């Protein structure tokens, strides 16, 4: 059990495009600076190619700050923050693992931010002025365009459920989604969806019915979809999927219009930050219109700032989808997600529903293949 | 108008200070009440959340099992976005699950206990629910502990307290207003009294007739007593002036009659007789005027010269020496008896000499009547210090002895005296703090005038 949890946490951290090259640390300025320059250490779970435009722009505005960015997995971030080891504690912590970030803030490890930007930040995207959601990333369905030609488009969960039940044989092994037991993100979405809709369990059963492939990252899912191994992927991280689909026009990205979970990357200023001023600057920058514009224009991440209305921004998505958007609520409910027994209970239920779907009496499901091994189609 | 000097401000200060103290007490009470109310209201959240969690606790795989409902935690966070903590403990304080190791709460017997606890530099409100599984075969006890930070409670307490603050402030304002009016109303009779006194004719000494509350009525009565004493004093003064002018008019009328009579004659001898008679009369009139003047001076309470220590025996001897020739002419035996040592009192020597001279003069005039061997004795007593002048004349009946001290009262025997002598002596005695009394002579015949001085303290 413990090993599985650990593995899940490790996988959760790597919600990244697998193809990007990995440099562990970014440093600005590139040349050595005076030793008394204010230091800022950021721990983040965002690959350097994604975060670099933001850091560069920040550095251009505040060249005197000695800025270091360490790219870690979300689990490493969590563990590095809580360990008392000799490493320099970070000033700013940025991670997409919402429950973990929330737990740290709830325990009082975050420092409140009293700036104008922090006060004006939308209420749904911050908690206590300590924890801020700086991105807006819906969870999406991605399918190959040929699927729509054969079976019709999939625009919401209801259609997906019907499609899975109707075309059970055609889709066997050609559907992919997160393994909630291995992926923290997948587990978080499962908890939220189970709360949102009782029909979620029917969907899990239908996924079990088509013997859906269960993987650990969005990257794996996109990769499989691009290679044609999968026809349809469920619960992919929208920001990555959007970027990926630009290079792979055969893929269609759908934000479900009945309900769509929205994930946010949460950032906070550590209470133990020795010199909070550069950290405050950085957070103010992330919350400012300028910083958000860089996020919106140079990264695939959606923006939150109410003044920005470009594609992928919270404003644009809200206009299009309205009430269907369900940002994961920044509240104590996230703590339940992290509860050990809760996790066991939910995973047990999930497994049960998934197996029930897989073993239900349908002619073609008498010999289910082991779900973790798939041959390429 | 300082607080010390104004009755109004004094009253206001003494009434307002306790009032403000009371208001402060009420505010403190209100603060505690608001806190208590907020705690009770928010404790219902802890109660509901712990119940919602407790309901999800079950026995599974031979251990306590909890399917934590997220809503139970959500309900612990209000608009104030409290930090939320929960934990499930099995018997023996054994941690089962939760996001914080929350402390146990001792005591109680009640299934639900609340307390403020310190936890990692934060103050948490902790609610502990004791429960047990209600299975057929499993009745394991467990504790659900939920806690959250106090921001929401403090915000509610503050807003409740703000309400009380406004009410108490309004009340205090009203009370102050009423107090100011009440004090003004209560002090109104004082103003009336002041106006009544100010509006009076300065010459009238009539009693004040003014309806006043009891406390001020006492003041009015005291004032009226003073006024009536002043009326008596003024009556005395008027009688004195009347008497004095009458006394002066008589010799002046005599003078003018005598002059008229003399003018009708041509005889120079008759003129001379008349002039001589007029000189005698005018001398006595002048003496009268001098005496009136000194009496007026003595009666003036604002002109009291400094008293100095002096020896009574010397005063007695000098006065006797001055009177000696006049007495010898009248054939009176004047003697002085003094103790060996000096008798020291504080006084003014010339006034005491004058008093003795007056007493000797009186004794000479009236005490020698109808005696072949008139004799006057000036005596000094050492303890208590006193001056005595004794004669062996007819004396004064006891019932007249007080009356003769009044100006112009001259006993039964008319003579050439002014009637002021004893009054002057009395005045001098008073200004020395001494008492003049008239008593019977030691021999039983004659009058003894005594000036008794207070016992010297020095």
TrEMBL record, chain A:
Task: Map out region (Disordered) in residue numbers.
Answer: 358-377
Q: Which UniProt keywords apply?
A: Signal
Report whether Signal shows up as a keyword of the record.
yes
Please tell me whether the keyword Signal is annotated for this protein: yes
Per the record, a Pfam family? SBP_bac_11
Q: May I ask which residue range the UniProt record assigns to the signal sequence?
A: 1-23
* Comp. bias intervals (Basic residues): 364-377
SUPFAM superfamilies xref list: Periplasmic binding protein-like II (SSF53850)
Q: Which GO terms describe its cellular component?
A: outer membrane-bounded periplasmic space
What's the protein here called? Iron(III) transport system substrate-binding protein
Automatic annotation (TrEMBL), chain B:
Q: Which UniProt keywords apply?
A: Kinase, Membrane, Phosphoprotein, Transferase, Transmembrane, Transmembrane helix, Two-component regulatory system
EC number(s) for this protein? 2.7.13.3
**Gene3D superfamilies recorded:** 1.10.287.130, Histidine kinase-like ATPase, C-terminal domain
Which reaction is the catalytic activity of this chain?
ATP + protein L-histidine = ADP + protein N-phospho-L-histidine
Q: Which GO terms describe its cellular component?
A: plasma membrane
What PANTHER family does the annotation carry? SENSOR HISTIDINE KINASE YKOH (PTHR45436), SENSOR PROTEIN QSEC (PTHR45436:SF1)
Give the originating organism.
Modicisalibacter ilicicola DSM 19980
Which residue intervals define the domain HAMP in the entry? 184-235
UniProt name for this protein: histidine kinase
Name the enzyme's class: transferase
Bilayer-crossing regions: 168-190
InterPro entries per the UniProt record, alphabetical: 2CSK_N (IPR013727), HAMP_dom (IPR003660), HATPase_C_sf (IPR036890), HATPase_dom (IPR003594), His_kinase_dom (IPR005467), HisK_dim/P_dom (IPR003661), HisK_dim/P_sf (IPR036097), Sig_transdc_His_kin-like_C (IPR004358)
Mind telling me which CDD domains this protein's record contains?
A: HATPase, HisKA
Subcellular localization is given as: Membrane
- Output the Gene Ontology terms for molecular function: phosphorelay sensor kinase activity
Q: Which Pfam families match?
A: 2CSK_N, HATPase_c, HisKA
Looking at the record, the residues that make up the Histidine kinase domain are 243-457
